[in-house]
Amino acid sequence: MRSGSPDITEQASLAKSQLAAIVEASDDAIITHALNGAIVSWNSGAERMYGYPSGAMIGRPISILVPPGLPDVMPDVLQGIANAQRVERFDTVHTTSTGIEIDVSITASPLRAPSGKVIGVTTIARDVTQRRAVELAPHETERKYRTIFENTREGIFYVTADGETVAANPALVRLLGYDSAEEYIADPDHLLGSWKTSERQELWSRLEGEGEVRDFEMEGRRRDGTKIWVSGTMVVLRDANGSPSTYQGTVLDITGQKRSETLRRRETDEADRANRAKTEFLSRMSHELRTPLTAILGFGQLLQMGRLSSVQQIESVDNILKAGRHLLQLINESVDIAGIEEGRMAFSLEPVRIGDVVKDALDLIGPAAEQRGIEIRLSLDQADRYVKADRQRLVQVFLNLLSNAVKYNKEHGMVTLSCRESKVKGTLTVLVTDTGPGIAPELRDRMFKPFERLGAEKSGVEGTGLGLALSLQLVRAMGGTMALETEMGEGSTFSITLPIVNGPAVQLAESPSGGAAPDGSGPAYPPCTVLYIEDNLANLEVMELVLAYRPGVKLISAMQGRLGFALAKEHHPELVLLDMRLADISGREVLKRLQGHPSTADIPVVILSAEALPGDVDDLLQAGARAYLTKPFHMEVILQLMEELLGGPS
Ligand code: ADP
Hints:
By secondary structure, the chain is α+β, with helices and mostly antiparallel strands. The chain is built from 19 helices and 22 strands. Strands 11, 12, 13, 14, 15, 16 and 17 form a seven-stranded mixed β-sheet that branches. Helix 9 runs antiparallel to helix 10, helix 11 runs parallel beside helix 12 and helix 12 packs antiparallel against helix 13. The longest helix has 51 residues. The N and C termini lie far apart (175 Å). Adenosine-5'-diphosphate binds next to helix 12 and helix 13.
């Protein structure tokens, strides 16, 4: 009878099939090789790992798993085992049937016959690709981060918890103008240094509180002192316990961006301001125009109804005329202000004798002052000085100031006009002082704004509220300044300061060289008449002086274009000297009229102008002008020209 335990043969067969089952179930590739390298067995693990079915591999060498370019170590392994050497586990790379390279760890052991003789080799290959990747990851990450640190465009730096810089990348070093990171770190004054001091304190507190500060902007200087704006982000890096270990910052240079932002903001602000001013100006202007228009229409309708007495009719017409004049003044002054603001108003800046300008303005204001019993005192010891200005416009400014000094003065008050060399070298100041009520400090700026009358509209004193605004702009446009000093109850002083220039006589003294003496002892010239059409008195005086060097010339002058044309027809001069900027019609129009009239068409015309725009010069020469001379005059050129046009001495 058999016992319950299996016999030896059965046991051996059981062990064999258990072994086969383990081999089949293993995830590792278990491969048996004959000593000549041919594969004898290829388990399911090998099939899964390499993708080759067992049938495709039996009898073939394992070298087909070795990637091209890598040495095949298997022959040496087989050789070693055949020679009873111990072969250590080794790592290598194999290729799968789809060409993917995998990291494998291989253990090789001898396969022996029952006699103990080595008849083959069993290799167990384990796919360690993933494990390798995990092992390599930290190095790889470090390498990647270092590449970024070294090559990024952003400046990167690290500071300790004490705020001390410990590392800086090449971009940051370049950005701030240093030669090396060491040099940057060693400089205690670098832009991003001293994080815990003064103005950066707030940044630091936020960083400690919130763990990061994003997109902060900071202005500072590079190493060479030039200004730089940076935008940056700082984050706290914590150790394993969660305490802050280092702080990492990244910065970008945004200087260019900041500059264009500032420029854009300034332009927008400027445009907004100009727009607001224009809108305000227009709305106030339309309001101001309504008042006189209402009077004109109202009194007009009353007259139309025909029920007014003759006295009332006269009063109504007076009121209409008064409102009409007011309307005209409003329009003229508004147009002037708009003209200056848009750069349309042309100025003829010439040497202007201050005494002459003041006199012109005084002549016009005299009657109004007399009417109110206001005395005007002059203290003009500098009256002979010349300033650079547009004569007509300067008269307009003084007229405004004098008119205010009279209008806003007390009955029988006083206005003083004085003149002194000002503190700013090379400038002259003219002061208009009144004994009026003075101007409250809070109103002093407002009074220079268009249409601001500061309550004067209720007092019955006539005005537009434009005079001071216009005067200020005119003075500025002529390169001067305007100031106000005033004390409540005492009076006000408005002053105007303009650059002093040499008078025309000085200009002339510099130019003549040789030539005939102006005492008539020189050579005899044919007698002739010259007409000079010019609205600037100083220029007329200069011309008189010039012509003293050419005896025999009778100079007649006209300060307006129309009068000039009339005089030309009447006197038929041998030569017309023509200014371009005249009060009534332009010099160009005068030339056209002269050329178009049979009695004046043949008179040579020479243009004398303060500005010679290339297009203008050509145009006027085309239109028939003989020459175009620019001011200030060069005496020799004028005399030479006269010799050509009028003939030389006999
Ligand atoms: P207006 O046409 O009203 O005179 P201005 O622009 O010349 O306009 O002056 C603006 C305002 O400033 C005046 O309405 C007046 O209230 C005040 N003002 C001007 N000049 C004087 C002055 N010399 N004394 C006191 N107030 C003055």
